[in-house]
């Protein structure tokens, strides 16, 4: 009871007024990283479509979709997504000094883990939605892939 009132006053005066601006500042790199994940998924599926349109090879299409399933674990391809979030390191340094925020690396790592998880969910959903269409007419496959991609991105 004796700590509650001073603690509330401290939060109200010294922290709460800054929360909105802090959140906006942190969301820039986070949003940028998640947009990069979206862009990477879009790009990879577009490459699958283009390859299929050139070859019309269903076996190769299956191999390409199987390879897409490994995308979340491909550190080279995911790196541009992770780099966007590394900007948090600089932003959080300022917060560390002002508000005694520690474990900056943990915040960045968790954000990158969420990005990988998002990609895992995207490729899994793509594979699940596209899987029944693999036996379809090969003339419609590219269109089906595009529709599935748009559905996943939605």
From TrEMBL:
Residue ranges of domain Niban 1/2/3 in the record: 9-154
Ranges in a coiled coil: none
InterPro entries for the chain: Niban-like, Niban_1/2/3_dom
Family: Belongs to the Niban family.
Protein's recorded name: NIBAN protein
């Amino acid at each position: 009871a004796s700590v509650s009132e001073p603690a509330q006053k401290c939060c109200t005066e010294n922290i709460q007024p800054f929360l909105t601006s802090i959140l906006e500042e942190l969301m820039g790199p986070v949003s940028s990283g998640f947009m990069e994940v979206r862009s990477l998924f879009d790009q990879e599926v577009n490459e699958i479509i283009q390859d299929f349109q050139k070859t019309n090879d269903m076996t190769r299409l299956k191999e390409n979709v199987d390879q897409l399933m490994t995308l979340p674990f491909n550190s080279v391809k995911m790196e541009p997504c992770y780099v966007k979030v590394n900007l948090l390191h600089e932003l959080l340094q300022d917060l560390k000094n002002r508000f005694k925020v520690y474990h900056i690396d943990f915040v960045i790592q968790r954000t990158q883990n969420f990005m990988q998880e998002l990609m895992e969910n995207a490729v899994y959903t793509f594979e699940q939605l596209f899987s029944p269409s693999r036996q379809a007419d090969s003339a419609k496959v590219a269109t089906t892939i595009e529709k599935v991609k748009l559905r996943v991105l939605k």
